[in-house]
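Quick illustration, no need to memorize.
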Amino acid sequence: MRRQRCCRLWLKMAILVASLCMFSLLGGPKKSRSLTYHLRYGWLDYTDEDENPEKVCDCSAILQGEREALERAKLLTLTNDFRKRVNVPEEFYTNATKDCRKFQASRKYLPFPLSQEEETFPLAYSMVVHHKVQNFERLLRAIYTPQNLYCVHVDKKASASVLSAVTSIASCFPNVFLASRSETVVYASWSRVQADLHCMADLYKASAAWKYFINLCGQDFPLKTNLEMVRALRALNGANSMESEKMPKGKMWRVQNVHQIFDGQLKGVGKPKDPPPFNISILSGNAYIVVSRGYVRSVLEDKRIQALKAWAEDTYSPDEFLWATIQRLPGVSGSTWASPKYDMSDINAIARLVKWQWHEGARTMMDAVYPECQGRHVRAICVYGVGDLQWILEQHHLFANKFDTDFDSVAVFCLEKYLRQKALAAIQ
């Protein structure tokens, strides 16, 4: 007995020594982290040893809105040398994914669920991509967990190098796949909706386990960890969350006139449309939604919705009314009544945070919805810069749009680091 106790004591000491050696390799303790955390998950954290060009920036100070840190980051992103170092060509991903295990490890993809709570509440994502593979890969890494499903739609008109890179990345993960059908996506046309519909159908067939569907584009980025998203979606208790409001008079032309694609652009043909089927009231919304599996089932099977989709095919920007309209139909899972009492703005929904140029302004302005963009505008939408991060993280939305690593990779880097540290800290 004494000998057995001695052996057990020796074994425990050996394990402790080995653990301490591994701990040393991981870089030793950080002030805010426990020893247990580092022994178990420190190798998943983003550190200065990862050789990111953006590591010279002080993300902690940036996220707190410290002026000097913000100015240094902005100046850095303007230098040609920095721009060259942060640019990752598509060919890198095609080559790096030839060894999937090495790619997953070097990019620190999560190899296991971080909690049972997350494991038992898988999510399904549609990701629509046409360029900027680096944006897509960093988005995928930020939201990746092995229990979730990810369907990626690559635009038919995307370059061969983009398709090859995205295909190669997806091939490294059993729960990431390309959409079964691909569309040539034309701005404001039905093709944008159809891309999501392909992924909806593929995800619905792929698994019956996932609870909620979220659609993304390549320039989105999360504002919450996967655990925070799971808890927010559990709190919905089967309801959906998206913008759904009365259609403004200034947008009625979009659904009252026939539109067709000519030379790669959607144009009106001067012909009025028939009224919507089943006397459905058309609501206004946006392309981004957070919906239950039951909502997706309705989109794929409900006869009223099939008729509505067919009617919407020759409208302008159907992604900005279709989901919002379906959300108000009786019998759709997680829907609300059609009464304006149930109108939901994009600010109150959790699906997506978007800064529109015409709604920006100082806090003292009565009609301002949010502070001015600290990045730049593309089609009246703010492409976020580091100066937007502090405000962004104060919001309740799950995702924000738009980010662009070609424009400000520091903003993405600091968000990545913040979310990973937060995710790992939650499992101490």
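The longest helix spans residues 2-25.
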